[in-house]
Design the sequence.
């Protein structure tokens, strides 16, 4: 069965004369931007229709349908008709549905596909979008819809249904080469060279390589049950709003403003640590410095029986209110005593917890906590935890709490890595909650502290504390970061948002990029953080305690994730934690797999970062091993419709013994492996399809040039 895989655009058999390859570098001839693909990819597990119905399959539905032997099916979708292809007792684990379609000229988007189970309601229909479709020429398009979109819960089904999601005329639609593709397979695809824009890329092996911290591949907010089935994450952060009031002795916490300020049962930290140890994962443990933790699993802060009717109440507990008055007022209700839900948690309480952890470590012979994080987003405590902390936090109290609780951790665990202040975002890098309450234009708290931005002042004072006392209470500067541009951190994937999402990643590093949000100035987060550290408290690491660029179900979510991880490696970030974790089977998870398991066999980005240069619209990140005989590079094409021909210069590394590429494109179920190339070249071309991630693994006969910066 002939099928095509979505890699960029594809040569049609009748146009094969225009699909000639190329060699060398420089300008490319215009013409078809085309890539021929192996006829066996993606691998079809269950043929349905190719010039006729496959054995065991039946056609039905209200849509008029005509079939001529060895010809595409002709279907009309007027009068809201369905075309149903069914096979009773169908079974198997499939990766998605693939087919070719030719619609009348000018019709635009109209088609949707769904799967019907053996019993119960039909599954949700998926609209065929540009992300699923690759133009083949002559009006034909290849469509590949992954199973994670059609049937994420893997419910047994026996019907594939085609339908128009909008009114459609009486013209015929041609459909052919319909099949269910193999589940979990990494289709082997032949990717001959193709016309496209030239993109010079260089890997500077002669420059000093810098160590990459494995802890940049972190996730946050997961519980112990999610640890075994992840995607190569190295470190798991125990964190989030609820952990500010986690009681380690009772395993309870308060949900704060996230859910009616209710106490509830929480995961047992010991089980979380044990699961991480058992699965070879590191742990970053958020520890409370707020001063109050939950006293039980049942109390709540704003009972209707005490405070009267409120704006909202817990549907399952009508007496638990949200702490606001009913409309039209909506005013916040002043909280009662913290003891309604909580008990004091002074530094001594935290010291006992860390001591208990270390005592258990001594029993098992392993360290179970690799990083302690001093609470979560303290400058918005007066919002998230206003039931026990209604007053805004200021410079002095943040410093005092950091010193007191950080010292408690250090005394119980002298080798601990301690991170803070875990602030939520841009305003609180520069101002305190007191400044926010009074107005950033007035900034009374900052003015009272020499008009120095909060993070810089915080680092400088902790440096002074260590010089004065000899006690170091901060090892890592930890800040959270989420893009603030409209709809970027969301599930939206319209063309404007998708393009903005990718541009927003430049806020991590680019000094020329003015953030397209209310911030409206260059952020350059990673170099800024390093400058703050170098100026105010040299030697501290930097950590992004939470981050996420949204679009998890869209190819741009994958590209943004891969871009962020590459920048973390480039700028020597100590640790970084994706919030929370990419959904299994989602495009965004492929951004992680590019660095953690691109070949399905544990292939990963290596331990030493190499400097690179790349062209506009593309990114290149490269790594080498300790010995210098292996190199792994990740190339990202940010353009939705322009293929690039990457002209790789690896001359400074020495002759390449062999290389192999793995490619992820929109609509694909995962990375597809290309044929390995054995050649001693120091320069070569590699096609980068539109909106794609390409991982290149190279082997060298002799250790590559360059030094390691230890």
Sequence:
């Amino acid at each position: 069965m002939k099928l095509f895989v979505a890699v960029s655009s594809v040569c049609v058999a009748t146009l094969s004369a225009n699909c000639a390859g190329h060699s060398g570098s420089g300008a490319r001839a215009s013409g078809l931007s085309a890539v021929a693909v192996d006829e066996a990819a993606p691998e079809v597990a269950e043929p349905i229709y190719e010039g006729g119905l496959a054995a065991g399959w039946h056609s039905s539905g209200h849509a008029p349908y005509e079939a001529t032997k060895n010809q595409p099916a002709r279907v009309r979708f007027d009068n809201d008709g369905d075309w149903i292809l069914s096979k009773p007792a169908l079974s198997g684990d499939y990766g998605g549905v693939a087919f070719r379609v030719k619609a009348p000229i000018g019709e635009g988007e109209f088609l949707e596909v769904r799967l019907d189970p053996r019993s119960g309601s039909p599954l949700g229909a998926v609209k065929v979008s540009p992300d699923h479709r690759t133009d083949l020429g002559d009006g034909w398009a290849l469509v590949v819809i992954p199973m994670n979109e059609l049937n994420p819960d893997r419910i047994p089904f026996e019907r594939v249904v085609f339908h128009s999601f909008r009114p459609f005329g009486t013209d015929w639609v041609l459909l052919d080469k319909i099949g269910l593709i193999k589940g979990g397979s990494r289709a082997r695809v032949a990717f001959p060279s193709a016309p496209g824009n030239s993109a010079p890329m260089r890997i500077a092996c002669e420059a000093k390589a810098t160590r990459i911290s494995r802890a940049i591949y972190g996730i946050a907010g997961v519980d112990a049950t999610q640890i075994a089935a992840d995607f190569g994450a190295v470190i798991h952060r125990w964190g989030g709003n609820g952990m500010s009031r986690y009681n380690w002795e009772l395993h309870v916490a308060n949900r704060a403003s996230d859910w009616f300020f209710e106490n509830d049962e929480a995961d047992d930290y010991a089980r979380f640590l044990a699961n991480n140890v058992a699965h070879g994962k590191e742990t970053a443990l958020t520890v409370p410095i707020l001063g109050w933790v939950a006293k039980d699993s049942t109390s709540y802060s704003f009972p209707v029986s005490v405070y009267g009717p409120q704006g909202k109440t817990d549907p399952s507990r009508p007496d638990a209110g949200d702490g606001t008055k009913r409309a039209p007022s909506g005013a916040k209700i002043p909280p009662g005593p913290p003891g309604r839900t909580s008990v004091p948690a002074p530094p001594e309480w935290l010291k006992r917890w860390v001591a208990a952890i270390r005592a258990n470590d001594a029993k098992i012979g392993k360290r179970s906590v690799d990083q302690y994080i001093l609470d979560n987003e303290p400058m918005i405590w007066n919002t998230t935890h206003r039931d026990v902390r209604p007053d805004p936090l200021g410079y002095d109290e943040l410093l005092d709490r950091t010193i007191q609780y950080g010292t408690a951790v250090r005394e119980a665990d002298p080798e601990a890595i301690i991170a803070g202040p875990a602030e939520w975002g841009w305003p609180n890098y520069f101002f305190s909650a007191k400044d926010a309450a009074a107005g950033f234009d007035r900034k009374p708290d900052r003015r009272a502290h020499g008009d120095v931005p909060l993070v810089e002042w915080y680092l400088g004072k902790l440096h002074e504390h260590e010089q004065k006392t000899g006690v170091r209470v901060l090892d890592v500067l930890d800040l959270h970061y989420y893009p603030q541009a409209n709809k970027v951190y969301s599930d939206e994937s319209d063309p404007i948002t998708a393009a903005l999402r990718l541009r927003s990643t430049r806020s991590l590093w680019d000094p020329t990029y003015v953030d397209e949000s209310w911030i409206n100035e260059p952020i350059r987060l990673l170099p800024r953080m390093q400058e703050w550290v170098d100026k105010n408290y040299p030697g501290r690491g930097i950590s992004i305690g939470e981050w996420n660029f949204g679009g998890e179900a869209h190819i741009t979510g994958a590209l943004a994730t891969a871009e962020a991880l590459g920048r973390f490696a480039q700028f020597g970030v100590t640790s970084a934690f994706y919030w929370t974790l990419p959904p299994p089977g989602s495009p965004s998870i492929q951004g992680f797999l590019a660095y953690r398991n691109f070949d399905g066999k544990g292939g990963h980005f290596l331990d030493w970062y190499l400097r690179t240069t790349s062209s506009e619209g593309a990114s290149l990140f490269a790594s080498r091993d300790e010995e210098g005989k292996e190199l792994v590079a990740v190339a990202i094409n940010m353009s939705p419709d322009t293929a690039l021909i990457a002209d790789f210069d690896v001359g400074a590394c020495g002759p390449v013994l062999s290389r192999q590429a793995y490619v992820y494109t929109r609509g694909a179920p995962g990375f597809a492996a290309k044929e390995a190339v054995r050649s001693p070249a120091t320069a070569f071309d590699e096609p980068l399809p539109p909106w794609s991630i390409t991982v290149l693994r190279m082997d060298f006969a002799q250790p590559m040039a360059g030094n390691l910066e230890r």
Notes: The chain has four domains: 44-182, 197-211+605-709, 214-301+338-588, 302-335. The longest strand covers residues 173-182. Residues 347-364 form the longest helix (18 residues).
